[in-house]
Amino acid sequence: MTLTLLGLGPGDIDDLSRRAWHTLKQANAVILRTARHNCVPCLPQVDGLPVYQNCDDLYESIPDFEGVYAAIVERVLAAARAGDVVYAVPGDPLVGENTVLELLKRAKDENIPTEIVNGISFVEPTLAVLGVDAMDGLQVLDGITVAAMHHPPINPDFPALLGQVYSREVAANVKLTLMNQYPDDFRVALVHAAGNLTPPPPLRTQRGGVEAEAPVTVEYVPLYEIDRSPHIRHMTSLYVPALGEMSSFEKFQEIIAHLRAPEGCPWDKEQTHLSLRRYLIEEAHEVLETLDAEDSDELYKEMGDLLLQIVLHTQIAIDDGEFKMTDVLRSINRKMINRHPHVFGDVEAKTAGEVLANWETLKQKEHAEQGVKREWLLDGIPKGLPALMHAFRYQEKAAKPGFDWEKIEDVIAKVREELDEVQAAQSEDEQAEEIGDLLFVLVNWARWLKVEPETALREANAKFYRRFRYIEETLAAQGKTLAESNLAEMDGLWNAAKAAGM
């Protein structure tokens, strides 16, 4: 009672190994995952034995691949429980064969001995026809897995080979996933029937109703066109060259690690978490500036500068033995999945409000599980926030248990009251305190109006800058300076800038 898992190679009978040939010749029973393989008609036949059974009927009767694979596993295991059986698959048993992995696991659980007879996978002939070296960082992936994802698990600085791109539907989904990282017109290669280097002879074109594969063909096309190919079949794979140009996160980590290495940059080597604090704030505000300007050409550059701070802090932590980038990514990945059960679980949340409510509940649960105890409600608000944002978050947090005005008219009345107190203040200290109270209640008014005060003031600052610069530029064009002008003239220019929509 032995289960032998055997690779038939990429297609041509000449690529079947001698060991595989002898194993098949001596076998009592052979189950083929599919008879749609060029070498099948030429497999050894001795007095009608072995009897080749295939699983193509399962592909035709079961609508989804998971169901097909499960049925194949059950069929093979049933045969293995009755006696020795060979399960033969295209290529190599351990390259892109989900049924083999499940069979190995199930056979181990049932104490069924297993043996692997390797074959040439689709990888080697594909590399041969493309002239590519696998040691050049080649990444081999299952096209079906990539098709189900939203972002490709690929380092774009290195090439990738995706197997099992067996239909135009799979190709379309693979395309959408890859386009989250690669340009739409990026040149890729569709490789069809790798391993079929010559046309099959007439004897092999049809036997038992099974058609042989056509010879290998390669199509070089833009990424957005891959699902338009009429040649896509069950032996199609997709080669994605390296995007290059230092486009990967891993390359960025390498650069920063090099800067912090003994032979690196003296300034970078001297930095600590504390010394970099000011840069983190500065870079965040520069990102906000490009967002306010809606300048996408500058946005990605400023986001890179902000990302530099994250990666540099992480490299410092690596050097000091605190944590690694894998810890940073693992933590945020788990948090995003745990905090979105309506996407990754079975919780329903149809509105943004429901999402936020779930988020807060899950956050409290996580803190409890981690032993994080906040004794007071406002303790969770970072004290380093800008003052307007800090006030907004305090008021937002305090309003949740009901510490809030009942209607907006009460807030407006409070604004008027605080304004009167500013006017009634006698000393500088009193004026400063009352101005602070007025600003605080103005923030609350903004919250009631669903206006984010930090953003509103930042946009007002930008508007002031544009209009005042217009005054300076207009005066300069007239050969005058601000000192040579007067308030009435400057006010007129201000109104002109306002009328122009600045």
Helix/strand class: alpha/beta
Radius of gyration from the alpha-carbon trace, in angstroms = 34 Å
Quaternary assembly = single chain
Give helix % range. Answer: 40-55%
**Biggest beta-sheet profile:** 5 strands, parallel
* Number of E strands: 12
Task: Tell me, rounded to a whole number, the average pLDDT.
Answer: 89
Sum up the overall morphology in one term: elongated
Low-confidence stretches are 198-212
How does this structure look, described?
By secondary structure, this protein is an alpha/beta fold. It contains 20 helices and twelve strands. Strands 3-2-4-1-5 form a five-stranded parallel beta sheet, with helices on both faces. The chain has a five-stranded mixed beta sheet with strand order 6-7-12-8-11. Strand 6, helix 6 and strand 7 form a beta-alpha-beta unit. The longest helix is centred in the C-terminal third of the chain and has 25 residues. About 3% of the residues have low confidence.
